[in-house]
Amino acid sequence: MPGITREEVAHLARLSRLELSEKELDHFATQLDDIVGAVARVGEVAAEDVPPTSHPLPLTNVMRADEVRPSLTPEQALAAAPAVEEQRFRVPQILGED
Q: Which HAMAP family match (predicted)?
């Protein structure tokens, strides 16, 4: 596989509007070539008999029983609020919408 050239790095830098020195072009070309090579090696490791997965272990949801428990009344919850409107916390408008 051909490596990443400094001309390709220069082209990507122009597209990204980055100013790179000659030394940086050489440095990043080497680094990007190493990265592309590492990704290619990972692709070679996957065997065809191994199905693709998003997680190596099966995932299961752990749920607790939904039980009614004592909680604050609306009045208690709003007692220390700096501003209340219609039994709700009143907060400053942030989106500029009505």
A: GatC (MF_00122)
